[in-house]
């Protein structure tokens, strides 16, 4: 007696054969709807959001940050530029001209509404108006001021605290603001200014994550496509496997965008991982169908056998993979939770694509090949008839 799952799969194959074109249209509509969610897909580079915030140690850190601030700190490093070969170039970072530049920059930054505080050697001279070089030199000899300088007096630091937020645009906007203030600041020859700190590092991580995500996806897609072309010995057959797999990837990323789930350091390589894990389902479907057709079985019989046999196999295989990754959602660290959830979702969509989309694409491709062959035969027969008539 045939079990309910196999009966359902046979019924699915019959529906796919009967309504192949309509199902293809539905797949396109479904892909467009989920694909719109790609616009809302973001990347989170803030490691704090990937940590278990409910644990006492993290909760205490959050209370301290709320109480005392200073959560976002941008550091401006002012250092000697040894490449400048001028007599007037600064050779000691405690040079009064450097401090005067810092005093100017200090005033500019403290006027910004988003800036909470600014701390640097210039902090010792606030409210004093014009300060002589001798007074600057004497003040910088104190232990408190000396802590801002490196041991070889080649570098000094300015700390800017602000409530910037973790959004990409917010960080980028604040970095641009600080850079504009630095560019506007008069500087003595022989020194250079650089920006670093938590928000700047997060911005750099944003760029690295985005470039790595695109690069790894392209490399994985190209290699998988080449392997499919080689294994199937046909470009068309390789595309029949890869196209539904690509749809599964679009569905996954679009769903993440719709749900507002950002990619992170743990999930940025999700695309290439899904391609690698999900490609086998389509290969099994296409290979079994070709085997049945090679036996000269009819299209519908071949499809029934393929969807019933391979469908039940890949459902079992896919569910075990989904459960394996889904269990990671029980982890304590959100980074691991997100990795498990997104991979489970990706495998689920690849499984659905292989089960519902692969057979439809196979049928449409075969129908097109049949139509194209008939069209060529008709043209060839017409040419023969014309040749015969001309011969008479």
Give a quick set of tags describing it.
392 residues, alpha+beta, Multidrug efflux transporter AcrB transmembrane fold, 2 domains, 66% helix, elongated
| Number of beta-strand segments | 4
How widely separated are the two ends? 66 Å
Q: Which stretches are poorly predicted, pLDDT < 50 over at least 5 residues?
A: none
Largest sheet, order of strands side by side?
A: 2-3-1-4
Total helices: the number is 12
Order of helices and strands: HHHEHEHHEHEHHHHH
CATH architecture of the largest domain: Up-down Bundle
Q: Say which CATH homologous superfamily of the largest domain is assigned.
A: Multidrug efflux transporter AcrB transmembrane domain
- SSE class: alpha+beta
Tell me about the largest β-sheet.
4 strands, antiparallel
SSE layout:
Layout lengths: L3 H15 L1 H17 L19 H13 L4 E8 L15 H15 L4 E5 L13 H7 L3 H4 L8 E8 L5 H17 L6 E7 H35 L2 H25 L10 H25 L4 H28 L7 H58 L1
Antiparallel strand pairs: 1-3, 1-4, 2-3
Helix pairs in contact: 1-11, 1-12, 2-9, 2-12, 7-8, 8-9, 8-10, 9-10, 9-12, 10-11, 10-12, 11-12
Describe the structure.
This protein is of the alpha+beta class and 392 residues long. It contains 12 helices and 4 strands; from the N terminus they run αααβαβααβαβααααα. α7 packs across α8 and α8 packs parallel to α10. The mean pLDDT is 84.
Task: Give me a quick take on this structure.
This protein folds into two domains: 195 residues, Up-down Bundle (Multidrug efflux transporter AcrB transmembrane fold), CATH 1.20.1640; 127 residues, no CATH class. The protein has twelve helices and four strands. Helix 9 crosses helix 10.
């Amino acid at each position: 007696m045939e079990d309910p799952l196999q009966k359902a799969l046979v019924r699915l194959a019959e529906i796919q054969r009967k309504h192949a074109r309509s199902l293809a249209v539905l797949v396109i509509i479904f892909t467009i709807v989920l694909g719109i969610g790609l616009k809302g897909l973001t990347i989170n580079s803030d490691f704090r959001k990937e940590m278990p915030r409910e644990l006492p140690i993290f909760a205490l850190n959050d209370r301290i940050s709320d109480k005392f601030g200073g959560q976002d700190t941008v550091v401006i490093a002012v250092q000697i530029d040894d490449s400048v070969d001028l007599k007037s170039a600064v050779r000691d970072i405690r040079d009064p001209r450097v401090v005067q530049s810092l005093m100017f920059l200090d005033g500019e930054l403290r006027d910004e509404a988003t800036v909470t505080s600014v701390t640097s050697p210039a902090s010792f001279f606030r409210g004093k108006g014009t300060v002589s070089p001798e007074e600057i030199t004497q003040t910088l000899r104190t232990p408190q001021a000396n802590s801002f300088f490196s041991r070889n007096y080649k570098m000094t630091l300015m700390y800017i605290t602000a409530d910037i937020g973790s959004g990409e645009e917010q960080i980028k906007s604040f970095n641009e603001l600080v850079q504009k203030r630095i560019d506007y600041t008069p500087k003595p020859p022989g020194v250079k200014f650089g920006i670093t700190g938590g928000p700047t590092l997060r911005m750099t991580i944003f760029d690295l994550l985005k470039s790595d995500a695109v690069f790894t996806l392209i490399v994985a897609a190209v290699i998988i496509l080449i392997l499919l072309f080689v294994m199937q010995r046909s470009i068309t057959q390789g595309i029949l496997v890869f196209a539904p797999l690509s749809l599964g990837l679009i569905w996954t990323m679009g769903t993440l965008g719709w749900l507002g789930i950002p990619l992170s350091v743990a999930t940025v390589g999700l695309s290439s991982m899904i391609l690698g894990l999900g490609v086998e389902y389509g290969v099994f479907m296409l290979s079994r169908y070709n085997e049945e057709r090679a036996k000269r079985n009819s299209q519908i019989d071949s499809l029934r056998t393929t969807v019933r046999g391979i469908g039940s196999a890949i459902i079992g295989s896919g569910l075990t993979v989904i459960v394996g990754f889904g269990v990671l959602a029980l982890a304590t660290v959100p980074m691991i939770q997100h990795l498990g959830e997104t991979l489970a979702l990706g495998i689920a969509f690849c499984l659905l694509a292989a089960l519902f989309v692969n057979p439809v694409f196979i049928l449409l491709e075969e129908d097109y090949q049949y139509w194209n062959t008939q069209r060529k035969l008709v043209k060839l027969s017409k040419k023969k008839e014309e040749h015969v008539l001309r011969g008479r």
